[in-house]
Amino acid sequence: MKNVLITDVDNTLLDWVEVWYQSFSAMLKETARILDVPADSLLPSIQKVHQRYGTSEYAFLLEELPEVQERFKHNALEHMEPAIDAYRKARRATLRLYPNVIETMKTLKSKGITIVAYTESQDFYTQYRFRKLGLDQLVDYLYSPKDTKPTSKDTSRIRIYESNTYNMVHTIQRHTPFGEIKPNPDILISIVRDLGKNKEQCVYIGDSKMKDIAMAQEAGITDVWAKYGQNKNAQQYELLKKVTHWTPEMVEREKKINFGTIITPSHTLELGFEQIIEMF
Description:
Elements: E1 4-7, H1 16-35, H2 43-53, H3 61-64, H4 66-71, H5 76-79, H6 81-94, H7 101-110, E2 114-118, H8 123-133, E3 141-144, E4 172-175, H9 185-194, E5 202-206, H10 209-219, E6 222-226, H11 234-243, H12 248-258, E7 267-269
Helix pairs in contact: 1-6, 9-10
Enzyme class: hydrolase
Pathway: Organic acid metabolism; glycolate biosynthesis; glycolate from 2-phosphoglycolate: step 1/1
Protein name: phosphoglycolate phosphatase
C-alpha cells in the first residue's frame, strides 16, 4: 500500500526558473546601473562565484563580485542595497506554488499520506520558500543540502525579519550528504530507509526525466513525471546557463547520462500536481 509521497520541489511544486529569472534579472539590472557597466559584462564573474559555492542562489553574491569589491572596498552591502531590494521585490511578485498544490497536499494528509520533499536547493532559500508558501504546514520531512557559505559571513545581516520567522514549525529538516546531487539512487534509498519505510510504500514525483525519473526507477521506487513543469522559457534558461553553478565537469556528467538513454516514465501528470492523488 502506498502511503509516502516523496516530491521534488523546484519545477514540481513551483516554477523555480520563473522566480529565479525575474529576481536575478531585477538584481542584475540594478547592479549594472549602480556600477555603470553593461549587465552582460558581470555574468562571467557571477558564474565564478556561483560555481565556487555550488549554487545559483548565493546570498552573498554581490559582496563577492570583483567588480563590486573594486568599486566599493568598504560597506559594499550598503552601496548595493538597491539591487538587493530589487531582487526581493521581484521575488515577492513571482513566488507562488503551482495551482492546487496546497489543496492536494491537504487531501493527501487527510488520507494519512506522509509527504517528503527532496531538493538540491540549499537550506537558506529552500526554507524561505517553504515558510512563505505554506509548505512548512504540510510537508513532514525536507531533505536538502546545507548551505555552502564562508564562515566569515554573518547570515543575520541579510535577514530582515525576526529570527523566529526563519525557523521551520512543522517540517523536520534533514540534510543530504555534501556534494551529492541527483540522479543518485543511493540518496533516495537512504531517505526511504531514514523514514523507516520500504520502497513499495513510496511514490516519487519530479519534473526531470534524467534527474528524477531515472533516479527513482533505478532505486526501485514508483516514479511519476511532472510533465506540467516542463513549460520552460528559452530566454530564461539562456540567462541561467550563463551564470549557472554547474561546472564543465557536471555538464559533461549529464551529457554522459543522457547519451543514448531513453527514459520512459511509469506515470505522467500532464495537467498538474493534483493528479498525484490518483496514485494513493
